[in-house]
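Quality-control log, excerpt.
Job 1 of 2 completed; input and output follow.
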Amino acid sequence: MSSVLSIAEKLLEELRAREDLRRALAEELLPEIVRNRRLRTIILASISREVATKEDIRELRDYAKRLEEKMVTKEDLEKLRLEVRDLRDYIHTRLESRIDGLEQRVARLEGMMSLFIKLFIAFNVPLLIAVIGILLKMIWT
């Protein structure tokens, strides 16, 4: 029994490895298949499992439509590119105007600080001189 199995296994290996042998075997069996109704039924049943039905085609068409709806076209990308460019330009313009406003406020603050320092010096220098004079007078007298 084991020798029969080993011969059958060898035959299967050989058939799997060589297409010419598979073709020759099919040609040998074909007349028998054509005559035998049961074999034809088995073959047709196995082939029919691989054939697409109208429902399969409809499902595939629906799936393709859903994919198409999700796809991004070149026109969509171009529109998006233009919108991003417009948004970038808008943000750039807004930031530029805000920066200009901040620069003007800082310039005004610098002017005010300069004036404050000058006033501070103008009022405090005479006081400091007076204090120094008083201290010197106290030391020498």
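Job 2 of 2 completed; input and output follow.
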Amino acid sequence: MQSETREQILNKDLKKIIVLLITILIITLILFRNSFFQSTYLLKSFGESSVDPAVAFENNKPTFLEFYAEWCEVCKEMAPKVSSLKEEYEKDINFVFLNVDNQKWDSYIRKFNVNGIPQVNLFDSNGNLVSTFKGKQEELKIRDSIDKLESETKSREDILNAEFSVIKENKNNNLKPRSHG
């Protein structure tokens, strides 16, 4: 009889601990939801708020062109930095965001030799490529290049970082001939 009481007490304690852990997890998710989900939300919003690339290269404004993917961890890490740059410069600069998983942007991906993401290309107001950033970058480095976009001396600059995501082959877009039998 006494062992049943101990077992019941242990079961009640275990249930209390499980409920407490679930409660702590829920509260943590609620309090830190912006930290957990902000980057993914930012990446999705970039694509929605993007200037069309054809318009960007014709409107005589400098252009910030980023190639990204929503699954890319480095892109997610860079998203808050890019967002602050966008907020600061969007009146003077076109911000174009192209998701490498969208077949619609394949010609741009090939044109600018995108083989790792994030890749940021900066163009002057005449559409000349001034800087290319591949991989994780410091916000200050990108900001300095943006500030130099309209300077007198222009020289092409490639800034690479080993921390980037290799583009995955999108097998959903592979076309296969159909039989017309």
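Post-run check on job 2. The chain has six helices and seven strands.
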